[in-house]
Design goal:
The chain is built from four helices and three strands. With 103 residues, the protein is α+β, with helices and mostly antiparallel strands. It has one domain (3-85): Zincin-like (2-Layer Sandwich), CATH 3.30.2010. A three-stranded mixed sheet has the order 1-3-2.
Length: 103
C-alpha cells in the first residue's frame, strides 16, 4: 500500500473513532490531546506523508484497538509503535466508558 493511501486509511480510522485530526504549524511533529472530553490529533503540516503516518501510528498505538476492525496495513503500522508508546490510554478510555462519556 502506498503512503498516501495509508495516510487516508489512518484519517478514516480517526473519523470512525470520532477523533479529529488537525494540521497546523508546530514546533514538534504532533501528537494526541484531549480538549473538552474529545480527542484531537494535532500534526505538523510541514511533515511529509511518512512523518504524518509516524505521528498517527504512535498515537493509535496508545489506544486499545483489539475490538476495532483494522486493515492489515494499518495494524502493521500501529504495531511498529506499540513498544515505543510512552503510555496507554486504556485506563482513561475505560473510565470514560464506565461513566457514560464517549472517548
Amino acid at each position: 500500500m502506498d503512503s498516501a493511501t495509508l495516510l487516508q486509511e489512518f484519517e478514516d480510522l480517526a473519523e470512525r473513532m470520532s477523533i479529529r485530526i488537525r494540521y497546523g504549524k508546530l514546533d514538534g511533529g504532533g501528537g494526541l490531546c484531549r480538549y473538552r472530553d474529545e480527542y484531537h490529533i494535532v500534526i505538523n503540516k510541514r511533515l511529509d506523508i511518512d512523518g504524518r503516518i509516524e505521528v498517527l501510528g504512535r498515537v493509535f498505538a496508545q489506544f486499545p484497538l483489539d475490538d476495532v476492525f483494522l486493515i492489515p496495513a494499518i495494524r502493521e503500522a500501529i504495531d511498529q509503535y506499540k513498544d515505543t508508546a510512552s503510555e496507554s490510554l486504556s485506563d482513561d478510555l475505560e473510565t470514560s466508558a464506565d461513566s457514560g462519556e464517549s472517548p
